[in-house]
Request: fold
Amino acid sequence: MCIDGLIEIIDNLKHLNVLSVNIVVVTDDVLQLLLKRDNLKHLGLRVRREEKYSDEINPQLWKQLGEKHTNLRMILNFDITTFE
Reply:
């Protein structure tokens, strides 16, 4: 799924309160949309081995997300499998 598609989904699903995505799609635009939500309860982030050096999440927006959604539950999934 492209980031634009994810942004459209987040924007259109008004009752979305659980989201699980690969960490590489957590852009500033995605975080800003999540900040507009009043009911975000669970956020799952998957980190694949080959993505471990991807861009960092914007620390200011991440802090704002935590301050707005004080009861937000995080799930981190680290996929370290390799295919040889």
Summary: The radius of gyration is 13 Å. The chain has three helices and three strands. Residues 16-29+40-84 form one domain.
